[in-house]
Every structure is written in structure tokens, then in C-alpha cells.
């Protein structure tokens, strides 16, 4: 471990860690976060706990590559962000992001996360800051479970069957 720790210390002087633009970019458009950021199922079991990553605050320990630590700090950021006017994204509620596009008749949801619970929490965070808009469409960008598994957290099968929500 002494060799690894020495190599990691060397990276601190050889890599441009004074450049914090990636943190500024990651924070751009921040509106609000869940506090605490622990999402539970109806039975009380924890579905997602982003607060478990709070150990990432501060400098990397010598046993961890500083670039890996920095990337982990960026990935642990959570909350609602404005991407551009009318387009919002919730990050940090599971392994993927959910996006909301505001339209004249409601909101289009893109990639509703991995589970009903985290999608509902993300949608609740969005609505707390942007208002109670109806979902008019859900778009899956591709077939990985983290892009469609939470659909029932943002709409219902009944609304889809009734033609109130398009699924694309």
C-alpha cells in the first residue's frame, strides 16, 4: 500500500486539480435537493441512499487515486437542475438521470429511472419547485432498466391505456 499511496500523492502534483471547472459545470442550474436524500419503499426498506456518499467530502485519502475520488464527488451530486429554460433534470437518485421537458399541456418525462420509488421521489422534487404539471408523454432513450424501470413513479397504466400519456 505504501507504493500506491506514494503514486497517489504524486498524482496530486502532476494533475491539474486546481482547475475546478468540472465542479462549476456540475453545479450549474442547481435548484434544490432532497434532504435527506434517502428514498424508501412503502414497506420502509431503503431503495436509494445518496447520503451514504457523504464520506466523499474533503480530500482523497492517500489510499485512493485522487482522480477517482474527484469523479466520485461529481457523481454524488444530487438534486433538481435547470438544463436550459423549460428542460430540467434530477440527478443522484439512482444510477441514471431523469429529465423533464415542460410543454404547453404538461411535461414530457425522459428516462424515468430504475424504480417506481426513485422516479416518484424525482418527480416530487421537480413538482415541489416547478409546479404540478401532468405527464403527457414518457420517452425511453434505450432499453436499459435504469431508463424505464421507474415509469410507474411518474404515470399509471390506466393513464397510458386511456391515451392521457404517450409512451415513446
Structure description:
There is one protein chain. The chain is an alpha+beta fold and 168 residues long. Helices cover 30% and strands 22% of the residues. It has 5 helices and 9 strands. The strands form 2 sheets. Strands 1-4-5-6-7-8-9 form a 7-stranded mixed β-sheet, covered by helices on one side. The radius of gyration is 19 Å and the shape is elongated. The protein starts with a helix and ends with a strand.
How is this fold's topology laid out?
Blueprint: H1 2-14, H2 21-27, E1 30-32, E2 38-40, E3 46-49, H3 66-75, E4 79-84, E5 87-91, E6 98-102, E7 107-110, H4 116-130, E8 135-139, H5 157-161, E9 166-167
Parallel strand pairs: 7-8, 8-9
Antiparallel strand pairs: 1-4, 2-3, 4-5, 5-6, 6-7
- End-to-end separation in angstroms reads 51 Å
Order of SSEs, N→C? HHEEEHEEEEHEHE
Helical content class: 25-40%
Q: How many individual β-strands? A: 9
Largest sheet: 7 strands, mixed
Looking at how many chains there are and whether they match, the oligomeric state comes to single chain
Tally of helical runs: 5
Q: How confident overall, as mean pLDDT?
A: 93
Structural class: alpha+beta
Radius of gyration: 19 Å
Low-confidence stretches: none
Q: Tell me the strand percentage band.
A: 15-25%
Major beta sheet, strand line-up = 1-4-5-6-7-8-9
Amino acid at each position: 500500500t505504501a507504493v500506491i499511496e506514494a503514486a497517489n500523492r504524486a498524482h496530486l502534483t502532476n494533475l491539474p486539480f486546481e482547475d475546478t471547472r468540472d465542479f462549476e459545470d456540475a453545479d450549474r442550474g442547481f435548484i434544490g435537493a432532497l434532504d435527506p436524500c434517502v428514498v424508501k419503499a412503502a414497506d420502509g426498506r431503503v431503495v436509494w441512499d445518496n447520503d451514504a456518499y457523504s464520506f466523499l467530502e474533503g480530500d482523497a485519502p492517500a489510499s485512493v487515486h485522487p482522480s477517482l475520488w474527484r469523479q466520485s464527488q461529481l457523481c454524488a451530486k444530487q438534486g433538481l437542475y435547470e438544463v436550459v429554460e423549460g428542460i430540467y433534470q434530477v440527478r443522484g437518485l439512482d444510477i441514471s438521470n431523469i429529465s423533464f421537458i415542460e410543454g404547453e399541456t404538461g411535461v414530457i418525462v425522459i428516462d424515468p429511472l430504475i424504480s417506481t420509488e426513485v422516479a416518484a421521489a424525482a418527480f416530487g422534487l421537480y413538482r415541489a419547485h416547478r409546479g404540478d404539471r401532468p405527464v403527457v408523454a414518457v420517452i425511453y432513450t434505450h432499453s436499459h432498466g435504469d431508463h424505464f424501470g421507474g415509469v410507474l413513479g411518474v404515470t399509471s397504466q390506466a393513464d397510458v391505456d386511456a391515451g392521457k400519456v404517450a409512451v415513446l
